[in-house]
Structure formats: structure tokens, C-alpha cells
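Review form for a predicted model. The reviewer records the input and the model, then writes brief findings.
Reviewer: anonymous (R2)
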Amino acid sequence: MITGRDERALAEAVARLNKNGNIAVARYCDVCNSESVAGLFLALKKQFKRLDILLNNAGIAGPASPIEKLSLDEWREIIDTNLTGLFLVTKAALPLLKRGATIVNNLSISAKTAFPGMAAYNASKHGALGFTDTLREELKPKGIRVVSLMPGATDTEIWEQFWPDAPRERMISRESIAEAVAMAVCLPENTSVTEIVIAPTAGAL
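Model under review:
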């Protein structure tokens, strides 16, 4: 089940996935809205009964802006999406996760690094790392693996917001990130993986 706020993009993604014989379904969800999240997991439970892998991937960067020019509304939108949304989705998912399940939280290298002009984004990702580390400790006794995914600059549309001319051809490909996640979730249950850090080749950017 894939989710998002762009229903047209969801429909196109499901169509591509199902061409390969998958049984993918899409559902609108705004991770900032607790009722929307609850509806997502009610539908998921009804159709699939359980959840084996949760990939928390929703995130926004917001405009590049120094702190003195960052508005409260911009701050709240980023924190609500990247941090509170992570909490809401994870909490709703926990009853459906059993021993052997895996949670992957896409955090970015901003979880451990600070970039000027990106205060809200940096804060949200640092907070998300703290949340993820706490979640991992709480779920260890239940045999549920929690992984921090921390990619460096990745070739996605997010750059259009604050660096339209970014050298995206020198960034990490989305396919490389997907392969790393697939490898992590397919590891045997007795194998521990806590962090996946992927960065472009030194000097590439």
C-alpha cells in the first residue's frame, strides 16, 4: 500500500507497479492529520490484516531561509510533516507489526548535520533521529527492527524548491536508495542493521 497527497501521482504509481504482476493499492493520506492516518491504517488492516514493513518516507524541505526570516507557519508545516507525521504514522502502525517486522525511517543526512538556511528541516530530522533511536530501543524486546535511512543528496524533485540548478546528475539515484532499503528489509531476522548511510562519491557535489 502506497500513500501520499497527490492522488493522480498515486494512481500512476500503482499502475506502473501492477504492470509487473504486483498487487499494489494506493490511498490518500495526509500524515499531519491524525484522522487521515487513522483511516489509512483502518483500511490497511481490513485489506491486509497485518503489516510487515513500514517505510516512513513523507517529508518536505520548505524554502531555504535564515532563521530571522523563517515564518512560524513555515516552521510548523515542516515540523508537522517530518516529525509529528512520523510519530502519528508509526503509532498507528504499531498494533499491526509483529515479531520480524521492520520499520525504515527516511531521515536524510540532515539528521546528523546542519545546513545553513534549513533550520526547520534540520530540527525536524534531528528530532526524527531521536524518535527513531528511542523507537528502536522500545521495540527490541518485540523483535521488530528499526532502521534509520540517512541518504545524502539524492536526485529528486525536492531540489526545485531551493536549488533549481543543482547538479542532480551527480547525486545519488532514487534506485540506489530503493536497493539499499530492499536489502535491509530482506536481511534475516537475526541480523542487526540500525543505520543506512549513503552519500555521493567524495567531491561529486
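Findings: The mean pLDDT is 89.
Further findings: The chain has five helices and six strands.
Recommendation: see findings above.
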